[in-house]
Amino acid sequence: MLTIKPRIEACFSPREFHQYEKGFELIVVIDVLRATSAICTAIEYGVKGIIPVDSVEEAREYLDKGYIAAAEREGEIVKGFTMGNSPLSYMSPDLIGQTIVLTTTNGTKAIKMAQHKETVVIGSLNNLDSLTEWLINQERNTLILASGWKDKFNLEDTICAGGLIDGVLKSGNFDSDEDSSVAAKFIFKSAKENIFSYLKASSHRRRLRKLNLNADVNYCLTPNNLTAIPILKNGILVPLKHVEKAVES
Amino acid sequence: MLTIKPRIEACFSPREFHQYEKGFELIVVIDVLRATSAICTAIEYGVKGIIPVDSVEEAREYLDKGYIAAAEREGEIVKGFTMGNSPLSYMSPDLIGQTIVLTTTNGTKAIKMAQHKETVVIGSLNNLDSLTEWLINQERNTLILASGWKDKFNLEDTICAGGLIDGVLKSGNFDSDEDSSVAAKFIFKSAKENIFSYLKASSHRRRLRKLNLNADVNYCLTPNNLTAIPILKNGILVPLKHVEKAVES
Question: If we measure between CA atoms, which residue out of A20, A35, A226, A239 comes closest to residue A117?
Fold first, then answer.
């Protein structure tokens, strides 16, 4: 008997999403430096929900209405906002139970691009194992959308995508078909022993080093310091476990 | 004294070209399986010129006017044509001194996309060393445009791009800045000892195997069996050495 296994594939940038998305209703969005690392951190540390928005203007409107809003462009906090996408800033006890509006250069754009799909979850190196295990249990066609940097390929998202693909394929219950998935898995396997050193040539790490964000980079490149999986429900990123509990009850 | 070196970078698909092209007037177009391997072979074996065209319709118009015309789509020769993009078919003595019109799924599209640039040359694994040496001598910002497969990333073009980048950087007179270039170089270094085996998982190789094109694949994946460098002049791909001789005289 020939059984067709679900596929897990990687798409390297939002610009290529439409070439890959057909047949995939489960999308994992990744922006390791730093949007999705920040979102996973926020959800793990008790933030109630994150509303991703495309533009700084939209975030500003929410701010004016009294929302907590965060905005990052080009690696820096946008003028007029007090938060950007530093994961460390999302650990504050003041944010527990709060809803936060967020716009970033690449990550929130990728999330918005995928929002018409049945299921959109958020991945990072921080929640790698937890997300891998969950994806294996779903047994669904899964497309990993790397946010890249301004529609360009980037190394850190590719490593993370490769880590998810490598882990999910090890279950024996999935296949990969795309060259991008083969390359991502290969790059992850070469990088995994020392991701920080592997990325020393990465353009984004150089960009963040200039902005004195090495503590953020160290944090974002640390696999499995979190277990939370954020999921998009009605336009808001919320903890997956709450959604699953609601379905069970 | 700080000297700024010229850059050599890789762009993984025509869809991303506009994200990368700024500041580059020297473009290397690659479509290893099989358009650019075929073009390099044709020029090496004495074809006078190749006219790349976008559509099958355009190629058919040339055919009707009495031109030799070749057309490939989805890996196969288009109905009504006698040639596609098999490199082996371009070695025929009947083609010496002839001009051939060519349209292919990915390669000719990438060439047309780059044609507004000052210099467009054609790369493949077949002419890797010869092209590397020439690029080093140009000392110009160089962008390698991989044709990919229908705007998707592919492994064989990435290996070839990585080979060019690795070779050119070894001169010590160039820099690379993009993550795509770092990844391409890394993938080339891992693959170079046995490209054929490395590509066993590649989607395009599987596609061509189904079409019984293993001889073509073996040929295209053999580095340095050619030295010709095709260059685009007035919309026609001609031997670079003829152009350089004309400039000298």
Answer: A20
Give the model's pLDDT for residue B196. 84
The distance of A203 to chain B (nearest Cα, Å) reads 6
Domain ranges of chain B: 8-236
Residues in chain B: 249
A179 vs B contacts (CB less than 8 Å)? 149, 152-155, 158, 202-204
Closest CA relative to residue A131, chosen from A142, A143, A121: A121
Model pLDDT, residue A2? 66
User: Any alpha helices (H) in chain B, and if so which ranges?
Assistant: 17-20, 35-44, 56-64, 107-114, 128-138, 155-169, 179-191, 195-198, 203-210, 214-220, 240-248
As its CATH architecture, domain A8-248 has: Alpha-Beta Complex (3.90)
pLDDT on residue A39:
98
Tell me the residues of chain B between 112 and 171 that have a Cβ less than 8 Å away from chain A: 149-155, 158
Given a cut of 70, whether residue A72 has pLDDT beyond it is: yes
- CB contact (8 A) between residue A203 and residue B149: no
- Looking at the complex, does the CB of residue B32 fall below 8 Å from at least one CB of chain A? no
**Which SS3 state, helix, strand or coil, does residue A100 take?**
strand
Residue B71: both structure tokens together: 């057309």
Q: Largest Cα–Cα distance in chain B?
A: 61
Q: What pTM was estimated for this model as a whole?
A: 0.93
pLDDT band at B197 (very low <50, low <70, confident <90, very high): confident
**pLDDT value at position A244?**
83
Q: Which one-letter DSSP state was computed for residue B118? A: S
Cis peptide before A205 (omega within 30 of 0): no
ipTM confidence: 0.90
B8-236 maps to CATH 3.10.20.90: no
The residue among B175, B182, B189, B206 with the most chain A CBs within 10 A of its CB, best to mutate, is B182
Rank B36-45, B145-154, B197-206 by mean pLDDT and report only the highest.
B36-45
